[in-house]
Amino acid sequence: MPVPTLEALIASLPSPPAVPTYQSVAPDQIPEPYRSLLVHDRHMTIAMEDFHQCKITVRVLQRRQFDGWYARQILLEKVGSGEVVQGGIVRIHLHMLDAPVQAAILKEDTPLGHVLINNNVMRHIDVTSYLRLEPGPALAAWPGIDCMSPAWGRLGILYCNRQPAIELFEVVPGNLKLQKDN
To answer: Is 6-177 CATH 3.30.390.10?
Structure first.
C-alpha cells in the first residue's frame, strides 16, 4: 500500500474540499495537548473520550464507495453537545475486513475505533506523517474545526489483523485546549 497523502485522501471523496496548507512536523514539534492526542498507538476514539471525559459519536459528512474501497469524511463529536473534537478521512479496503466489520462500518453510526474494538479486530497504526495545518478558508470545510487557529493531525495506515486495511487522516481542532478548559 502506498503511503497515504492528504491530497489523495481528500481526492477520494465525492466532493473534495480544498486541501489545507500544511507542513510535516516532528512529534516533538507538536504542542500539548495535541501531542498526547496524536503521538500514540491507541484508538483515536478512546484517546478523545479519555481526554474529554465523555462518549464520542461519529457524523459522516460525505462518503464514496469504489473499487472495493469505502472512503468517508467524518467528524467525531461529544455525545449530547455535538461539539467537534476531531475530523478525519478514511479510505478502507473493505475486503481486508470480515463481513460483520464491514457492515458495522457501512452503517455509519459508530466511530471506527469502537467498531474495531467491538469486533475484536487486532490493529496497529503506522503513522507516516504528523501535520500542522495552517489557519485559513480550507479548514472551514470541516464544520466545527476552528479555521482561525492552526490544527494538528496525522496521516497513517491502520493495519487490521496484520493487513494494511485503512488509510487515514485525523485532525484535531486548534482550539482544543480552550474546549478542554470549558
So the answer is: no
The DSSP bridge pattern shows strands 163-172 and 151-160 to be antiparallel
Contacts of 89 (CB under 8 A, 6+ apart): 9, 10, 12, 13, 71, 72, 73, 74, 168, 169
Distance CA 112, CA 27 (A): 24
All residues at 6 or more sequence positions from 177 whose CB lies less than 8 Å from its CB, including other chains: 33
Domain ranges of the chain: 6-177
State residue 11 phi and psi, 5-degree precision: -65, -20
Phi/psi at 98 (5° precision):
-65, 155
Taking the CA of residue 65 as centre, how many other CA atoms within 13 Å lie in the half-sphere pointing to its CB?
6
Per-residue pLDDT of the chain (182 residues; tens, 9 = 90+): 678 999 999 999 999 999 999 999 999 999 999 999 999 988 889 999 999 999 999 999 999 999 999 999 999 999 999 999 999 999 999 999 999 999 999 999 999 999 999 999 988 999 999 999 998 889 887 888 888 889 999 999 999 999 999 999 999 998 864 444 44
> What are the cell numbers at 79?
455525545
**0.85 exceeded by the pTM?**
yes
Prior bond of 150 cis (ω within 30°): no
